[in-house]
Amino acid sequence: MTEFLASLTLGLVQGITEFLPVSSSGHLALLQQLFGIKDAALAYDLILHSATMLATILYFGRDILRLLAQWLGGFVSKEGRGSEGWTTGWAVLAGTVVTALVAFPMKPLMERAMGVPWMVGGGLLVTALLLWYGSALPARRVGRPLSVAGGAFVGLVQGIATMPGISRSGSTIVSGMRTGLSAPEAFRFSFLLSLPAIAGATLLELMALLKTPEGFSALPSGWQLGASIAFLSGFLSLVLLRKLVTLGRWRPFSVYCAAVGLLSIVLSLWR
């Protein structure tokens, strides 16, 4: 497969797996090794993550602006402190802080696990169990209101989900539903909470990239189209995932993650 087609394939896989509960990091790492995209791996990974982050911002754009305005209004009026945006804003901040406190100490282990197939496979098995459990939770249309404590709990789960093979979207949506949130609210909060985490991780990747001699000069051919495909497929994946979450359709993803996880472990032990 040519480098151009490899770029398009990576863009498509990033867009789909970033939001569907199947762990995008493991899929991208395997495909980059398969296609031999090594020198540009960090730069292209940065661009693809930025593309899917833009898709998230576009999808939730109205919610983000409305909730942000309400949160800022809470600093100037008592009525604003009773708004949805006030609670959501503090829940996102609490979840982000907890995510950072959990994820940063785990970074060395996470980087080591990326190169160990049986550890990635173990993470996928954890995802499979979480999704199977999520399928048993009621897909409520109306649930408990979001709280700062609930946001911190989902942030804790998000921090643990930095381990390769553990789906960030799947684990945070399931944990949100476990706290009593409705399925649509758990879906929305999961991705609102993801934005600071992804932005922070992207910034760290950019700083690491700027320290390398080649920088962005070694990007594979077709990277612009690959990024566009990541953006478009990511947006469509969000639309699809919201419908699946509302209907409680987790089990096909659970079976898929279990199969890939077991295969990774078996092949690792065989070698």
Describe the structure.
The longest helix has 31 residues. The mean pLDDT is 85. With 271 residues, this protein is mostly helical.
Summarize the structure.
76% of the residues lie in helices and 0% in strands. With 271 residues, it is mostly helical. It has one domain.
Instruction: Assign a percent range to the helix content.
Output: over 70%
**What's the number of domains?**
1
List how many beta strands DSSP finds: 0
- The global form is globular
How many individual helices? 11
What distance separates the N and C termini?
Answer: 26 Å
Question: How confident is the prediction overall: mean pLDDT?
Answer: 85
- In this structure, how is the largest beta sheet organized? none
Q: Provide the β-strand percentage band.
A: under 5%
Order of H and E elements: HHHHHHHHHHH
Assign the structural class, choosing from mainly alpha, mainly beta, alpha/beta, alpha+beta, or little secondary structure.
mainly alpha
Low-confidence stretches: none
Report the radius of gyration as a whole number of Å.
19 Å
Question: What's the structural blueprint in terms of helices and strands?
Answer:
Blueprint: H1 3-17, H2 24-35, H3 41-59, H4 61-73, H5 84-114, H6 117-136, H7 148-160, H8 168-178, H9 183-210, H10 223-247, H11 251-270
Provide keyphrases for this structure.
mainly alpha, 11 helices, 271 residues, single chain
